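Sharing in case it's useful to others searching the archive later.

Someone asked me privately for the predicted structure of Nudix hydrolase domain-containing protein, so I'm posting the question and my answer publicly. Question first, with the sequence:
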Amino acid sequence: MVSLVSRTGRQYQRYNMVGCRQVVGCIPYRFKNDFEELEVLVISSQKGQGMLFPKGGWETDESKEEAALRETLEEAGVVGKVEGELGKWSFKSKRHGTFYEGYMFPLLVKEQLDSWPEESLRSRKWMNVEDAREVCQHSWMKEALDVLVHRLTHSRRQVNENDDDEELVEPCSLN
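And my answer, the predicted C-alpha cells:
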C-alpha cells in the first residue's frame, strides 16, 4: 500500500559529522521506442520556480535507497527500481544558506501514479536528457544526470558488443 501523505518535520533527519544535512533523491527514467529514447522525469520546485529531480531528507529510520524511493514517490508520484548510487555531492542551499550532502540514484520507473502526496504542490514532466539538463536548476543534479547517461550508454554499449561476439551455431543433432 502506498502512503498518500508526505513525511514532515526534521526531527529524524540525518546530518554528517560536520553538521551538513544529508539528502537523497532519484533521477526517474524510462525508455521509449523500443529502448531507443531515454526520458527522465523532472518536477517543479515547491516554490514553482525551476525544475529539478525529486530529493529530500534522509531520515534515521531508513536506508539511503528507501529514502530516495520515498522522496520520489512523495514528490513525483512514480515508483520503480532504485539502482546503484550515482554519487555524492556537497552543495549550498541558496534558500537556506546552509550546506548539504546529496546522494542521487537512478530509478527505473515501473509505475506512474495518478495521485501522489505532493500533486497539489508540484507538476511533473517527462523530457529528453538535453531538455532536462537545460531546465534543471541545480548544477549538482545536472552532474548526476551526466553520470546516469554515461552509465546507461556504457552498459548498452557492452550489451551490444556482447551480442556482436556471439556466433550462430547449428543445434546439435541427437543421432
